[in-house]
């Protein structure tokens, strides 16, 4: 599939596809979902060599909430406070709380920074507890 065709099917600009393919573009989760839908692949597959089942519309529609739950779960499991993590990552006070509660359309740069801090692979941040790898 050409970049132009992918852009058309995904409903994103050709420039967005070009930047993702050729630079370290700061992509939003919403764009990741659009591309996953167009390519009929799970968003986690973009960040891992593992094979995942094809996503459902419900899965793609809930991705931001899944990410929010995973950020909170990993942080709590490691007994790190929101304030401490905000300070360590140089985030605005309260921003992590917004991420965990409201699941904004995060950029992959921010999500990658959080995942690295929590020592969690980026693809796992995108997985809900019901998603299983294809073995």
Automatic annotation (TrEMBL):
Signal peptide: none annotated. SMART domains: HTH_XRE. Residues 5-46 form the HTH cro/C1-type domain. PROSITE patterns: HTH_CROC1. SUPFAM superfamilies: lambda repressor-like DNA-binding domains (SSF47413). Keywords: DNA-binding, Transcription, Transcription regulation. GO terms for cellular component: cytosol. This is HTH cro/C1-type domain-containing protein.
